[in-house]
Amino acid sequence: MIDFIRQQVLPRFGVTASAKVSPLGNGHINDTFLVRWPEGEFVLQRLNTEVFTQPHALVCNAQKVAKHLQAKHEAGEYHLSVVQPVPDSQGELALDLGEQGFWRAITYLPFSHSIEVVADAAQAESAAKAFGHFSRALSDLDASKLEDVIPKFHHLPGRITQLQEAVAKDSLGRLKGCQAWVDFALSQGKLLSELSEIEAQLPPRVCHNDTKINNMLFDKRNMSSMAIIDLDTCMQGHLMYDFGDMVRTFTSPEAEDSTNLVKIEVREPIFAAICRGYLSELGEVLSDVERESLWLGARVICLMIGVRFLTDHLNGDVYFHIHHENHNLERAANQFTLYKSLLAQGESLKAYLK
Ligand code: GN1
Ligand code: MG
Q: How much is the ipTM here?
């Protein structure tokens, strides 16, 4: 892949083939590289067009969001750095190389650093405040101006149906090895009824839709929050899911694919720090129902990603990149364990949202 990038992709961006190209980050969908040459650097991605079937819509959405944030940044109203699209030599935001993929470049921020596990409450509060700041800055961007790049992305009933379909097919005979987790996932119907009651009352918002801790760049020099990356799934949605993905990825002391299940639990001080940070930016923006929905969003996101990993395991790992056998099953077990901890600690956690 790296040779192909040097020879076929970089020249299209006017970059010399002698540039240094190295894999970057831990994304599960796209292939991401850091490209460095004597005069500059950028991040290059090959978009996964099985997942993002409308890559033009994706780059267009990301550009609209980046423009909006950059204008606020220049007006002194947005304090984080903004990752910008880098056009190719023809001025295009993305390069369609047919069979060889769909490529795009974005700016690289010097001194940036990403993490997989939150170290302490101060780090959680800073990152949650930054995600809140991001959403506040986007609260005056008309959500209907963004394309729905993945329809029904955060839609638990649809994700449960996909799991049921995968179970019915059991195309690789993997069901017997994960029946207990399937039964567990399908026993959470109560959450679906709660969701259907509340969701209809929520206003549409421009959401990030993937507020994982590793989509927050920290400044290596002082570990302050620097920028929010991965604008690929920015589209209309509900803020409870952005809150939920922070809870999902900040509160566990273990990484998303850790198999050390006994150590997985919601760290209450981190949960409290997320609430403080997020609400310090969005407290005035959220409607009463939205604020009430945050606890629901946390539970739905944890359960839903467990369901998505389990579905992909049954389907033969066709969606999320895996690095070893049963990787998606391990991720699912991890996320269901975290979800159980959320439920068990519900009474004390909910209090932080009051
Ligand atoms: C995927 O590729 P990445 O890591 O940004 C996924 C998210 C999941 C996440 C789980 C388009 O995000 O929805 O929450 O993995 N993105 C897509 O880690 O499906
Ligand atoms: Mg993403």
A: 0.98
133, two tokens: 């700041």
Q: Over the stretch 295-306, which tens digit does the pLDDT of each residue have?
A: 999 999 999 999
* Residue 338 identity: L
For 278-295, the pLDDT digits (tens) are: 999 998 999 999 999 999
Please name each of the domains of the chain with its CATH number: 1-108 (3.30.200), 114-351 (3.90.1200.10)
Closest C-alpha to ligand 1, atom 5: 27
Ligand 1 atom at minimal distance to the Cα of residue 209 = 13
pLDDT digits (tens, 9 = 90+) for 179-208: 999 999 999 999 999 999 999 999 999 999
Name the residue at shortest CA distance from atom 16 of ligand 1. 29
62 Cβ contact list (under 8 Å, min separation 6): 85, 106, 231, 232, 234
Residue 132 C-alpha to ligand 2 middle, in angstroms? 18
Distance separating alpha carbons of residues 33 and 273, to the nearest angstrom: 33
Q: Which atom of ligand 1 is nearest to the CA of 150?
A: 11
Tokens 């929520």 correspond to 202
For residue 50, the ligand closest to its alpha carbon is 1
User: Cβ < 6 Å from ligand 1: which residues?
Assistant: 27-29, 51, 210, 212, 230, 233, 256, 305
Cα 14 from chain centre:
31
